[in-house]
Write a structure and sequence with these properties.
By secondary structure, the chain is an alpha+beta fold. The protein is built from 19 helices and 16 strands.
């Protein structure tokens, strides 16, 4: 995460001051910022901490770390800080301390901790955020989280808190932990995460300080001593007790190393928990239907688990000889190859694409089949090869919205059209005569070929299909005689255009489906919600370019594929007076 996390303190002499900050460096350290790898400059102490390599190194310190006080330095002057001792409240690291550097091996990112940022612009941003967090930008009670900032100086998540100090005015000192970044949306979305983790750091600091405070009060109670001492203005500032460091208040010499580890982990974890995704417009109907089906499947699995638990509690007695037998249930509506009690992994696709299927079946047979698919008629495939049937359904279903697809991949008996519009059957299954003679069904029979090749050979052809013969029949040849729906004509034009790759054809099909689903939504709103008269509906169909008979049938069938979310949203919408009057 491109941010800076800092610990700030309100000094009674100098006001708000930055004590310790951790920043992210994506590029190598600048020259002179880290020379710890050269011999003779110090020992290197490293430890692994959650995939981040932490090391304390000898570094050339900037004036912000107390080495000098030139006019060009981004850090504060010596006169603006407490005495140059590590025991004072305005300082965290001693003048010669190298600071802390953590290396993230996965991303090659470095997390650097010191008292102030070395870059002048970053120092100014952190300084302003520190002042605002400990002065004007506070929540009621002066302790708790708050958000503020702007585009120029960055946005800040600030959490103020008190630390117990037996020698301070009011027996407590005021601190804040701030997270600064330029991305307002990202920081707001990270609020719950930052609040929980920073609250944990604060609780640990307050717990350590409370133990020290109670021990000091037990040994020498300060409240009674102050009441018995004559009042002296600014007594505590002059005797130096007001400037006790945080390490002294918590009695933890490794405090800054621990804070560096916590801040570095906070930056890494907060940066990896959220990812950006490009969303183009509202979710499609297919996405909504898939989400609804997933929710229904989860509910069914929960109810199934509950029923199984109840059956286990009842502990039924098995009949004699039933031990060792496994009762299996054969699902009928899954997109996997299931064979009543014997699940088999899915094989490679037999049909590669719609263009491939058109080459295998031939243009006239494919057009008839595609017409029935788009109209919502029942499509029946009879074959001994269940994988071939499954592959054919996977290709044909791409022509329809997800909500219009009802598949029984392979069955040993005929299923009515209201249960499925794609049905796979074994060759011995008898299809009722009224279905064979109906214009609302199409049958594709797959026979063993008598010759080596019975269909045109294309570049995408699979040699495994050369042993089959495909016969497409329907009770009415209406599909071959009519012009057909507009989407079918456009689809065939894309399939016959050899300049378009298979991927481009797939995207073209997606666009065509979205175009006609939008027409379906308009028609549904017009007829089902607003209850417009038939004359107005005809005018609307003419405007939509769908007044032909096949187009109207297609729109009515695709209307069944609208998501429940969209339908309920429209039905719950209050009709306007003008719509009701018309």
């Amino acid at each position: 995460m491109n941010a800076i996390v800092a610990l700030c303190h309100f000094c009674e002499l100098h006001g708000p001051r930055t004590l310790f900050c951790t920043e992210v460096l994506h590029a190598p350290l600048p020259k002179g910022a880290g020379n710890g790898d050269s011999p003779g400059q110090g020992e290197q102490a490293e430890e692994e901490e959650g995939g981040i390599q932490m090391s304390s190194r000898i570094r050339t310190h900037s004036p912000a770390e107390g080495a000098s006080a030139e006019s060009s330095s981004p850090g504060p002057k010596k006169s603006d800080m407490c005495e140059a001792s590590v025991s004072q409240g305005c300082r965290s690291l001693a003048a010669g301390h190298p600071g802390y550097i953590s290396h993230d091996k996965e991303t090659s990112i470095k997390y650097v901790s010191h008292q102030h940022p070395n870059h002048p612009q970053l120092f100014s941003i952190v300084r302003q955020a520190c002042v605002r967090s400990l002065s004007c930008e506070v929540c009621p009670g002066r302790e708790g989280p708050i958000f503020f900032g702007d585009e120029q100086h960055g946005f800040v998540f600030s959490h103020t808190f008190f630390i117990k100090d037996s020698l301070a005015r009011g027996f407590q000192r005021w601190y804040s932990i701030i997270a600064i970044m330029m991305d307002r949306i990202y920081l707001i979305n990270s609020w719950p995460f930052l609040l929980g983790k920073i609250r944990g750091i604060i609780d640990e600091l307050q717990g350590k300080a409370l133990k020290v405070f109670e021990a000091e009060q037990f040994g020498c109670p300060q409240r009674a001593q102050r009441m018995n001492t004559a009042f002296t203005p600014f007594l505590h500032q002059r005797n130096g007790n007001a400037a006790r460091s945080l390490t002294s208040l918590t009695s933890d010499d490794n405090l800054w190393a621990c804070l560096h580890t916590s801040f570095a982990w906070l930056l890494k974890a907060c940066g990896s928990r959220l990812t950006e995704k490009l969303l183009e417009g509202a979710p499609t109907e297919d996405t909504l239907v898939q989400m609804e089906k997933l929710a229904d499947l989860e509910e069914e699995s929960e109810s199934w688990d509950n029923s199984e638990a109840e059956e286990e509690e009842k502990a039924p007695v098995l009949p004699e000889g039933a031990e060792g037998r496994e009762l299996t249930k054969c699902p009928t509506d899954f997109s996997l190859h299931l064979d009543c009690g014997n699940w088999q992994p899915r094989k490679l696709s037999v049909f590669k694409s719609l263009r491939h299927m058109r080459q295998v079946l031939g243009a006239p047979s494919f057009r008839m089949l595609a017409w029935h698919v788009l109209m919502g008629n029942q499509v029946i495939w009879k074959s001994r090869d269940a994988d071939l049937v499954q592959s054919a359904f996977e290709i044909l279903r791409t022509m329809l919205p997800v909500g219009c697809v009802r598949i029984i991949p392979y069955s040993n008996q005929y299923e009515e059209a209201y249960r499925c519009n794609f049905l796979g059957l074994s060759p011995h299954v008898q299809i009722p005569s009224h279905v064979l003679s109906s214009e609302f069904a199409v049958v594709v029979e797959v026979h063993t070929a008598t010759r080596s090749s019975l269909h045109p050979v294309g570049c995408e052809d699979d040699q495994s299909l050369s042993k089959y013969e495909f016969v497409v029949t329907s009770g009415s040849p209406v599909a071959a005689d009519r012009v057909g729906p507009t989407i079918l004509n456009k689809m065939e034009a894309a399939l016959t255009n050899q300049n378009l790759s298979v991927d481009v054809v797939d995207q073209c099909l997606v666009c065509l489906k979205e175009e006609w689903m939008n027409k379906v939504k308009v028609l549904f709103k017009f007829t089902k919600v607003d209850s417009r008269p038939k004359e107005d509906t005809q005018k609307l169909l003419s405007i939509l370019g769908a007044s032909e008979e096949d187009n109207v049938k297609l729109l009515k069938f695709w209307m069944t594929g609208l998501s429940k979310t969209y339908k309920s949203h429209l039905m719950s919408t209050v009709r306007s007076p003008t719509a009701s009057a018309s």
